Amino acid sequence: MKYISTRGAAPELSFEQAMLTGLARDGGLYLPESVPSLSHAQIAAMAGQSYEEIAFTVMKPFIGDTFTDAEFKTLIAQAYAGFGHDARAPLKQLAPNHFLLELFHGPTLAFKDFAMQLIGQLFQASLGRSGERVTIVGATSGDTGSAAIEAFRGLSNVDVFILFPHGRVSEVQRRQMTTAADANVHALAVDGDFDTCQGLLKDMFNDFEFRDRVRLAGVNSINWARVLAQVVYYFSSAVSLGAPHRKVSFTVPTGNFGDIFAGYIARQMGLPIEKLVIATNQNDILHRCLTTGVYQTDKVHPSISPSMDIQVSSNFERALFDAYGREGAAVAQVMDELKSTGAFTVSQGALQALREVFTSGRVSEAETSASIKTTLAQSAELLCPHSAVGTAVAVDHLGATPMITLATAHPAKFPDAVEAATGIRPALPPRMADLFEREERVTRMTGDLAALQALILERTGA
Ligand SMILES: *Cc1c(COP(=O)(O)O)cnc(C)c1O
Where is each Threonine synthase N-terminal domain found (predicted)? Predict the structure, then answer.
């Protein structure tokens, strides 16, 4: 299986190379040359299987011969062993035909753990046999950073630097990033917002001399291996509601478009998904784009669902690549336009292609709080604000097809917003109860690229 860039001008890579690289050298994102499909019988056979068994079947065709079957099975088993729920991604019912997929039973209580725990294992296995060392730099609006630190801390072949927007993450998120005692972990609080952090990251990837010197590796959702790991729970949940014999739809609280893009891949692989509903908070660039055809950046408006507070939605580029008939040059052109003018118009044909699969909705802050409150009253479920954005949008899209809304984080990760909406302060699971007593370790940074690169060189000795 070969991986190609969405901008058509970077070398083709193997799965392992694409995983260790992250962003392509032409600025694009890697995608498989063609998406393998699973047969009706293969999907039907998943009924009753464990999460790990389904994970193997779904991901195996994408990884080629990177790992033997036995190795890959072991890595999958180790990735999910630390989860606090045997089903890994349990499905609950909220209302007739509306279901909630709980993706917050991993070590940092957000869906990011599904991908990050797995790629921590895959990196370790791959670097372990080559003896190479890499520097992982990640930008986070909160959850990616904590998940990455939890997955990579203490590993011998990896330094991990996490950039997060100072003052814009919840206290639980911050503490999950700043309290790891391992010497290979570096939490960096940057003056600015998530887009500042993501911009710095992209600039470092585009500085080839620096990139090669520190052997930069990216674990943001631009990393294909992360998207791939998330495809699995679309299968496990849909099968438990009767797929492939019955269709399902999904509503996905969306920021960088990585999670919902995994649903798009599941659909391409043959999972009968009717609609993928993009749920956004007041940072609604994707909703506006799907509605009007214009992708127009705006300022980030901080919200109670901070992991979705972004304007440049990186993985949307992958959907655009398909919508533009897989013409890298066309994608490169709209991305250049975005960079120079802050906006571009999606062509009629591409917009139509996107609308065949995706639909969207947007909720305000008040509606998010109301959704937390009514879901507790009507379904006895305490939702985090991101999941509440999802359920609020999903309610407008319920119909004959079962709807699965993704619950992307545990309510205890965002206790202030949950308490404000319901009067109930959600408690951390017992395995994390000492988080507020642990010592914090963090470096404050401006948004200056040169200073950041100097710090990384110094800390890694590269
Ligand atoms: C990352 C995150 C999202 C957004 O996911 P994307 O893949 O960036 O679209 C939503 N909710 C939570 C809790 C997250 O951590």
Answer: 2-80
